[in-house]
Amino acid sequence: MTGLTSRETSPLVAIRDLAVSFDGVKVLHGIDLAIHRGEAVGLVGESGCGKSVTWLAALGLLPKKATISGSVMLDGGELIGAAPATLDSVRGGRIAMIFQDPASALNPVIKLGRQVGEALALHGGLSGKAIRAEAKRLFDLVGIPDAARRLDAFPHELSGGQNQRVMIAMALAGKPDILVADEPTTALDATIQAQILELLTRIRRETNMALVLISHDLGVISETCDRVCVMYAGRIIETAASEALFAQPLHPYTQGLLAALPPLEGVRRRLVPVEGNVPEPWNLPPGCSFAPRCPRRVEACAMRVPLLAPKTADRRAACIMTPSLAQPQHRPEPVYA
Amino acid sequence: MLRFLLVRLFRAALTVALVVTFAFVVLRMSGDPALIIMSVDAPPEAIAAFRKAWGLDDPIWLQYLRYFSAIGQGELGQSMRDGRPAMQLVLERIPATLALTLPALALKLGIGIPAGIYAALHRDSLMDRIVMVTAVAGFTVPSFVLGLVLVLVFSVQLGWLPSGGQESWRHAILPVLTLGIGGAAVLARFTRSAMLEVLGQSYIRTASAKGVPWPRVVRGHALPNAAVPTVTVVGFMVGSLIAGAVVVESVFSWPGVGRLLVVAVANRDLAVVQCILLLVAMTMVSANLIVDLLYGVLDPRLRSGAKAGAH
């Protein structure tokens, strides 16, 4: 089990109590998350639940009006409040990030080869002809046909899927330890989605790079990730190994998400939507944020925010109505989600 | 690409022809040149002779054709007032006008663009507010008001600078400032909004996310994109180098093309007015042509649009 072995070593990135507010409105309520070398972690939740904000905050990519507290440790170095030069070397060099809409995430007036080359020059210390050769190698690696010619193309000359491959090539240029893929397939056709996910999985296997896959799509996550964190209204509300989560979701919200997902095989059944909407960050209900939509809510749910508590050996859920399935193992060291 | 260029050139020529025609129609509609040049009290025989001499008795379409073909041959006629070639009169005035408009253009670019970039990069800061308030003031105050205020302060009250005339470079300072401040304000606002638009784009975040230091993100990723809308405004400013100073030249009694135009219009000196309008149209059209070509250089998406048009 990758989940167990990786936990014995210290994590590559340890996010602790990370909170973000915009103009005094809290959108992220203290996230604890650890990423180990080579693992694939999925962050899933509806839009606006704080999946992307977590990583944008960690990398200092949020606008200035955002207030950030908590800690993000990368190999023992603190990223929150780090000097710009430190962050610049981490971004792309240690933690790379790709975004949802590849067409708008690439600079429209700069040749693709130069955009990838820029990352190579910054993190690989390459220059001149070596950059072009390496950029071509990366284009080949991510499966861009006719790579040499594509280096001189502009983003608008490529399809969305090809542009996402360029984004991935660019992210790989700095040989990062972690690739954070923020909804990498949402803007793409279903067939291209599968190709891009396959590419990410293949690259992760070949380079032992950790992958953080942010998606609202449980199907995408289940195919790609070892471990899943489900987020709701700025908090992680359930975390488990992929298979366990899909086999037996513990939190009512996760159960709702899975019930709303068409089964990949077997008989077709009626899909059950999760009733209601995600509460606005400035208008959160007291106690558990999911309580108003929860089929299992009781009065106590509104009393206080439920902790992300261990429910079985390797699973946690933030729900007071979910019984612990087994005696949780006691761990002396700080626990990460 | 060649066809794109040819189409653009044809359109430019068409624009010039339209301006020339428009000038002819408006000037003919608005009064009889013979009466204005000769004054209403002149003896009828003299007026008739003047008409005959200038071909004003011929049918209007014949006059128009004659005028148009003359322009086609570079023959712009003579001033009805002093009989000298209109072209020569106008060309004589151009250096004086450029002596105002070129330094003013430098001022607009030198202040407007950096101020706009700075304001965008420090959005909502005190400096941003100051720049924007100044910019609004700068481009809402009409140039003759600004000119008069500058004269009031620097010539009348402080006595530092002359209020009009063309004797030395010091005489140019106030008119250049008057022209430059308004233009710098317009350019600052344009540059700021272009930069803000670009800085909010996803590819700026991508550049930061791959570790490009912020100053290089601004220089290498934001500025080239913000240049496209800014070039449009700058192109317009370049196009008005010849005719952009009509009001200011009048306020400061500066003997440039603008003053010549005002005097020629008042006198119905057709040849001179037409010559100036032709010149203005041609500078404006050439500036636009250059801007169109620059778009292609700055933005590959527009370049391929041009290619698509050529096939």
Q: Which stretches of chain B are poorly predicted, pLDDT < 50 over at least 5 residues?
A: 305-311
Helix-strand string of chain B:
HHHHHHHHHHHHHH
CATH H-tier superfamily of chain B:
MetI-like
Number of strands of chain A: 12
* Radius of gyration based on Cα positions of chain A: 20 Å
In words, what does this structure look like?
The complex is a heterodimer of chains A (337) and B (311). Chain A is of the alpha/beta class and 337 residues long. Chain A has helices at 2-8, 51-58, 84-90, 102-105, 112-123, 129-141, 147-150, 160-173, 190-207, 218-224, 242-247, 252-259; strands at residues 13-22, 25-35, 40-44, 66-74, 77-78, 95-98, 178-182, 210-215, 227-232, 235-241, 309-312, 315-317. In chain A, the strands form 2 sheets. Chain A has an 8-stranded mixed sheet, with helices on both faces. In chain A, a hairpin with a 2-residue loop joins strand 4 (66-74) and strand 5. In chain A, helix 5 runs parallel beside helix 8 and helix 6 crosses helix 8. The longest helix of chain A has 18 residues, at 190-207. Chain B is an all-alpha fold. Chain B has a single domain (86-310), classed as MetI-like (MetI-like fold), CATH 1.10.3720. In chain B, 78% of the residues lie in helices and 0% in strands. Chain B is built from 14 helices and no strands. Chain B has helices at 2-29, 33-38, 44-54, 60-72, 86-121, 126-140, 143-157, 170-199, 202-209, 214-239, 246-251, 257-266, 270-298, 300-310. In chain B, helix 5 (86-121) packs antiparallel against helix 6 (126-140). The longest helix of chain B is centred in the N-terminal third of the chain and has 36 residues, at 86-121. Chain B is flat. Mean pLDDT of chain B is 84; it is low at 305-311.
